[in-house]
Specification:
Radius of gyration: 13 Å
Number of strands: 6
Structural class: alpha+beta
CATH class: Alpha Beta
Number of helices: 2
Strand order of the largest sheet: 2-1-6-5-4-3
Order of helices and strands: HEEHEEEE
Distance between the termini: 22 Å
Shape: globular
Helix content: 10-25%
Mean pLDDT: 90
Strand content: over 45%
Oligomer: single chain
Number of domains: 1
Low-confidence stretches: none
Largest sheet: 6 strands, mixed
Length: 108
């Protein structure tokens, strides 16, 4: 299935789980990410979150569905890896402004 996603989201999933290199560039300077009960604010914190996740877990995310809900792009992904509960389907709620991500929330 081919999903029609905005470019920053496509790029995010291309890099997701591999390294934080360039990932922070996809976000506005004061963006927020909510994941596993934590909130990360700003590109430096987001890059550190990505580095920590990449070091802690070996995983892949495969987008399988998307929809727009109240202005957010909601992408459902099938995530597999060496983490408890794998595999799992997660929902990624992206807020986008132009070609940048302003917020991301990852929901089990």
């Amino acid at each position: 299935m081919q999903l029609d996603l905005p470019l920053p989201i496509v790029t995010y999933f291309t890099k997701h789980g591999r390294s934080s290199a360039g990932i922070a560039d996809l976000f506005v300077q004061d963006a927020t990410v909510k994941d596993e009960g934590h909130t990360y604010t700003g590109t430096a914190a987001i890059a550190a979150w990505m580095d920590e996740s990449s070091a802690k877990y070996d995983f892949t995310s495969r987008p399988v569905a998307s929809e727009t809900v109240d202005g957010a792009v909601v992408v459902t992904c099938h995530v597999t890896g060496n983490f408890p509960g794998s595999p799992v389907d997660l929902r990624y709620l992206f807020q986008i402004d132009g070609d940048k991500i302003t917020s991301l929330e990852i929901i089990p």
